[in-house]
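Tokens as discussed.
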């Protein structure tokens, strides 16, 4: 495939995600290393691209030194008058720098012609955190209220709202707030569709260092405790971000993404590709299982392509799938097709299970089992007595679900004549 063809396919595959995100509200936390000079211009460019695609954004950034917050872990750090003055100066400097980056519009800049308006203001009211365990936290505060109406008006006018982790009290004082709390409370107040948090690593990793692409709340809690227990600042920063994501999920935010602040393009890869880049924490484990429609054909083709490449599945053309779409069932999650399977009638008594494919990011969630159970129910409703499965690699999986080894002679004549001897697929059957 030529470079031009690859670009065309990339745009086509991203179209569904573009449509799904348009008009949505995202709250994004730029924290710690995400504000370092290295990758920040790339992050701002990607945020500008999201804005141009119709995403409404409230952008939260920290004001205190991230190292101090990470070192404190779950405890609130105290903020004295000297530290508060540094924080105010830092917040102003970061805000000005971000505004300047969003204002780039020269012909040689990636954001030529973007014309993005950024707004700051006293959108957050705060109260003092007070005395905790005998320690007066002084200018460390807690969020009292997010002025969601004022932020909403700015977002409705196509502006990006910039929120430093500072809050203002009714007595005119300024308080240092935890960035995670600001992001969580802002997302809750706005009813945001997503909370996106940048972390130093590639996402949330397991004990062996492998990134967990999706997390339930229970998994997230276990990972948070492990991360916060470690001594290195990178792990503790990720733990604090995950803690904020967990609070957001409990407050009603369905999707929280933790992605790398170091990896160029991680934000776009996470939001606009099937593979993603990072970890998605979800409070909603519900997946929509339904019969496929013609509009699902592109998603099915995308799902089965890797399995066709490695020889696990027989290649199917778009035309073939369109003609056979009535045989397919699919699973959707967040308006995205993440799994498929097909039931082909062989004759009045026999049916064949085929083309089971699951998005790698959603494996180990029982989707294959759900699809198989649905196909078995369809087969019974159609009066079939036996299900067949022909596979080169998944015979153990089928056997775990009640299928037994069979042979070529046991296939109905209608199916035997189309058996591909060269593939040498293993034959399994299940009595319904």
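Sequence:
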């Amino acid at each position: 495939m030529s470079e031009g063809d690859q670009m065309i396919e990339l745009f086509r595959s991203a179209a569904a995600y573009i449509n799904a995100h348009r008009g949505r509200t995202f709250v994004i936390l730029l924290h710690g290393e995400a504000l370092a000079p290295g990758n920040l211009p790339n992050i701002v460019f990607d945020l500008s691209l999201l804005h141009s695609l119709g995403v409404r954004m409230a952008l939260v950034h920290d004001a205190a030194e991230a190292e101090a917050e990470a070192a404190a872990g779950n405890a609130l750090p105290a903020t004295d008058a000297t530290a508060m003055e540094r924080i105010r100066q830092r917040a102003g400097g970061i805000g000005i720098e971000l505004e300047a980056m969003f204002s780039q519009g020269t012909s040689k800049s990636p954001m030529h012609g973007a014309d993005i308006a950024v707004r700051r203001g006293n959108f957050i009211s705060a109260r003092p955190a007070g005395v905790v365990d005998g320690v007066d936290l002084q200018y460390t505060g807690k969020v009292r209220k997010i002025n969601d109406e004022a932020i909403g008006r700015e977002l409705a006018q196509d502006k990006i709202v910039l929120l430093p982790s500072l809050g203002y009290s009714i007595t005119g004082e300024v308080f240092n707030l935890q960035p995670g709390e600001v992001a969580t409370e802002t997302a809750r107040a706005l009813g945001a569709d997503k909370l996106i948090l940048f972390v130093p690593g590639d996402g949330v990793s397991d004990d062996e260092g492998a990134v967990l692409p999706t997390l339930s709340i229970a998994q997230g809690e276990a990972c948070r405790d492990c991360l916060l227990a470690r001594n290195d600042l990178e792990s503790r920063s990720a733990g604090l971000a995950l803690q904020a994501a967990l609070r957001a999920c409990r407050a009603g935010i369905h999707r929280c993404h933790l992605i790398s602040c170091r990896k160029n393009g991680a934000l776009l890869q996470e939001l606009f590709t099937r593979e993603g880049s990072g970890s998605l924490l979800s409070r909603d484990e519900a997946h929509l299982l339904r019969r496929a429609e013609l509009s699902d054909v592109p998603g099915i083709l995308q799902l089965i392509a890797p399995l066709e490449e490695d020889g696990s599945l027989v290649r199917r053309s778009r035309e073939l799938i369109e003609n056979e779409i009535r045989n397919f069932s699919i699973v959707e999650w967040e308006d995205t097709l993440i799994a498929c399977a097909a039931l082909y009638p062989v004759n009045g008594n026999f049916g064949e299970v085929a083309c089971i494919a699951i998005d790698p990011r959603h494996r180990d969630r029982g989707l294959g089992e759900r699809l198989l159970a649905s196909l078995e129910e369809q087969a019974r409703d159609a009066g079939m007595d036996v299900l067949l499965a022909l596979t080169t690699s998944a015979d153990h999986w089928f056997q775990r679900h009640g299928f037994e080894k069979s042979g070529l002679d046991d296939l109905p004549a209608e199916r035997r004549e189309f058996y591909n001897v060269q593939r040498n697929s293993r034959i399994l059957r299940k009595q319904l």
